[in-house]
Amino acid sequence: MFEADPPGWADFKEPVAKPKKPISLRLDEEVVEFFRDGGPGWQTRMNAVLRHFMNSKKENSIV
Asked: What pLDDT, on a 0 to 100 scale, did the predictor assign at position 7?
């Protein structure tokens, strides 16, 4: 146990994560295996890939 909090610890605020929406999604088996083979956090990595794709599409679209 720590005797004293590290400097700035009292002001630390944990970032609020955006809530995730649970869905049912059908993917190719090899796609799921690719991400699962990366170990724990595979769904988070898959979400990051999808988010990157979404953002690149948004940046390249004309509004």
From this structure: 73
